[in-house]
Design brief:
Chain lengths: 341, 255
């Protein structure tokens, strides 16, 4: 790719580093140095996230990291569904609520300990959410987004009106995670494992089928692929991640209530994905790690935060629509130099 | 010509609102033949393909594949039975590289079943198919992102996606349109080879000269109705076919 700059007879030439072979995700490694070239960014991410809780000055900020991890997972699930399966999912709040309420009910009514409620809520909640969303699988376009947005709104009204599961008060006095170290060092490994697992998945054959669905569901049907089935699989994966975060948050606070269905959980992941870079999977996670702590820093501004948010988003969409991670990856894998013409 | 009927359409009718797209059309597809389907724009050719492949459900009538009713089955089920199609408007998986496009059909239940669950290296199989169909491996064409491929390759990619299914029937919807003579010349032997290997082919085409070189029989549709059926040379001489389909442009076809 060439860029013409100025009146001088020079141009900027951009070349792939030799290591990268012609197509996505294939590299030719021949030395330790080259292996390090690929490993360095991954190690930085893993070590960075693992060290992060240690650097926090107080309990408040350690909790912020935990909540950031929650949003990181939700953003990851959003990015996976939106950019690898073609389902625009506003269901963060739905998954959150379903996972949260299931763990709340299991904990308060049946007295199950949190080592049992979190996995149970993850699996049962994912099945439940997938079944709830299954009517939209054969449809294309915006229906999935609308339905995922509708369920959490409906759910909070239903809980309010029928006064079930604690009604507007919610369910209090649930088990809490033993301590803040346990809290942060459970969410961050889950985040890392989910991230790398999803990155692996989308390059596997089944992942290619999902990406095929996104690009062209008609062609996928003509190739003998049941789009309903594969949309169900991927919704299950995303909702399992979402339900886990719901269950986790409930045990972090020791409380489950209607605010689990708050639209923040649906909308913030989109913002994080735009900032971090759609379709990179790691980008949205980093986006969450920028956006959520920033929100906390700006807490004093109150509702003015929304204005700041909008400006930040608009700025990214105008000046860097590809997102941070896409930009960074390009800079890392290519080098530019000036050549005389 | 083999006489075994592989696919049968019986009195298929489909309307979209007031428009009668296909009216009472019946046809038989014999095993191993190449059947051509021609007709003016809007005569219901693509709708008929959609009816056969399950993308559209007929208002009445039925489709039989090996004497089994497949009307109303989901498109992916029909594809897994061995009836595949190309799309007139090409539908590549544009964000995937060309050979990764073939992973999707190679992952279908049909192919997985026929290979006993394991295919080994799907990438290698995909690249072999593409090379056979004219994607030069040495020039790294199979590795290019589908959205960057020119029209000729995309048309071939459509066909490659069908071949990857190891189908019994391939239905080509205007696979020559928009291609140069040279590009068509590379595709004709490919289709002949498929026929030799026992694949039954049905072709919708406007490029009559190229079509007539390939097909054994031809069906003419006009306003959703079957106008004629038979050997190309005879069908094209029929006055009503000339009038309906060729109109005043007879000279152009003859050139």
């Amino acid at each position: 790719m060439l860029t013409q700059v100025g009146p001088r007879e020079r141009r900027k030439e951009r070349l792939d580093r030799g290591l990268k072979v012609r197509t996505e995700g294939i590299y030719a490694l021949s030395s330790g140095k080259e292996a390090l070239y690929l490993l360095a960014p991954r190690l930085t991410l893993i070590l960075g996230l693992l060290i992060l809780p240690l650097l926090m000055p107080n309990l408040y900020w350690q909790r912020v990291i935990c909540i950031t991890g929650v949003f990181g997972l939700l953003s990851l699930a959003f990015d996976f569904l939106a950019n690898y399966v073609g389902l625009i999912c506003l269901g963060g709040a739905l998954f959150m609520g379903v996972g949260g309420y299931i763990t709340g009910i299991l904990n308060s009514l049946f007295g199950m300990p949190l080592v049992a409620t979190i996995p149970a809520a993850t699996v049962v909640g994912a099945v439940f959410s997938t079944v709830l969303l299954s009517p939209c699988f054969p449809l294309r376009g915006i229906y999935f987004a609308i339905v995922t947005l509708m369920y959490p709104l409906a759910a909070s009204r239903i809980i309010e009106a029928l006064d079930i599961f604690g009604g507007t008060e919610g369910m209090a006095d649930l088990d809490t995670l033993p301590n803040i170290w346990f809290a942060s060092y459970s969410i961050i490994p889950v985040l890392l494992v989910s991230l790398f697992a999803l990155r692996r998945l989308v390059t596997e054959d089944i992942g290619l089928v999902l990406r095929g669905l996104k690009d062209n569901d008609q062609a996928a049907k003509a190739s003998g692929i049941s789009i309903t089935r594969y949309k169900a699989y991927s919704t299950f994966i995303a909702s399992a991640i979402g339900c886990f975060t719901g269950a986790y948050l409930v045990h972090l606070y020791g409380w489950a209530g209607i605010s689990l269905f708050a639209l923040d959980f649906s909308i913030l992941p989109i913002a994080a994905s735009v900032i971090g870079g759609m379709g990179t999977l790691v980008g949205p996670v980093l986006g969450a790690f920028i956006l959520i702590p920033l929100t906390e820093l700006l807490r004093e501004l109150g509702t003015l935060r929304i204005v700041f948010y909008s400006l930040l988003l608009a700025g990214f969409i105008v000046f860097n629509p590809e997102g941070l991670m896409t930009y960074a990856q390009r800079k890392y894998h290519q080098f530019e130099h000036w050549v005389e013409v | 010509m083999a006489e075994e009927v592989l696919l049968q359409v019986k009195n298929a009718t489909k309307s979209f609102g007031g428009v009668k797209a296909v009216v009472d059309v019946s046809l038989s597809l014999f095993k191993g033949e190449i059947l051509g389907m021609i007709g003016p724009n809007g005569s219901g050719k693509t709708t008929l393909v959609n009816l056969i492949t399950g993308f559209v459900k007929p208002d009445s009538g039925e489709v039989l594949f090996k004497d089994k009713r497949i009307t109303g089955l989901q498109p992916h089920k029909i594809a897994n039975l061995g009836i595949t199609r190309t799309f007139q408007i090409m539908r590549p998986y544009h964000s995937l590289s060309a050979f990764k496009n073939l992973i999707v059909p190679l992952y279908s239940p049909r192919v997985r079943r026929s290979t006993g669950g394991r295919l080994g290296d799907r990438d290698a199989v995909a690249i072999d198919i593409l090379e056979e169909i004219g994607f030069e491996r040495d020039a790294y064409v199979p590795y290019k992102i589908a959205s960057s491929l020119p029209l000729g390759y995309l048309k071939r990619l459509e066909l490659a996606r069908c071949i990857a299914m190891r189908p019994e029937i391939i239905i080509c919807d205007e696979i020559f349109s928009g291609l140069s003579m040279a590009e068509i010349a590379t595709m004709v032997p490919l289709l002949e080879k498929l026929q030799m290997q026992g694949t039954t082919i049905m072709m919708i085409e406007h490029r009559l000269r190229e079509l007539f070189r390939l097909v054994n029989r031809v069906i003419v549709l006009n306003f959703g109705e079957k106008l004629a059926e038979g050997i190309p040379e005879e069908v094209i001489e029929k006055p009503d076919v000339r009038e309906a389909y060729l109109g005043t442009e007879v000279d152009n076809v003859r050139d």
